[in-house]
Design a protein that fits this description.
Distance between the termini: 30 Å
Number of domains: 2
């Protein structure tokens, strides 16, 4: 009459969930690490300011110009994490504290010569800072923990034999 599930069915669903979470987190961290192989070119900051967002957060607005493959291009992404965006509409460089964002803007004043890191596969995608942030380290750690948890739970759910 009613469908019944074996004692390991719920555990296996949890394993599947953990594997999914782990792979998503690790794929984000891998995508971020790809910026380490991006090409370096010279650029110049065109403008730099702090924007207050409607929700009270702040965003660094840094516009820069660079030439790649003989084509002059404009860029706006500051840190590598910003290439991923987010579900809540914030970039990784956005912050609720104006001072945090002001520090980013002061590092890239208008007229400054900068190194621009360009994605050779998509030359319109570029960043000024490709260093790892704590958010990316955390994302990778969550991925590893989720996959290890899935492995342990999977072995326990499968049982002996």
């Amino acid at each position: 009459m009613y469908a019944t599930y074996g004692p390991g069915a719920a555990g296996m669903r949890m394993v599947q969930f953990l594997v999914g979470v782990g792979l998503v987190c690790l794929s984000g961290a891998v995508a971020f690490s790809a910026t380490s192989s991006w090409d370096e070119v010279d650029g110049r900051v065109v403008s730099s300011s702090v924007e207050e967002l409607p929700d009270g957060w702040f965003r660094p607005r840094v516009a820069y110009r660079y030439t790649y493959g003989g084509v002059e291009r404009d860029g706006r992404l500051v840190i590598a994490d910003d290439t991923m965006g987010s579900d809540d509409g914030h970039y990784a460089s956005d912050a609720p504290d104006r001072d945090d964002v002001t520090a980013i803007v002061q590092a890239y004043p208008a007229g400054a010569e900068v190194t621009v890191y360009v994605n050779p596969a998509i030359p319109s995608q570029a960043v000024l800072d490709r260093s790892a942030s704590w958010s990316m380290v955390g994302l990778a750690a969550v991925g590893v923990v989720a996959l290890v948890g899935a492995l342990v739970l999977g072995v326990r759910t499968a049982g002996p034999g």
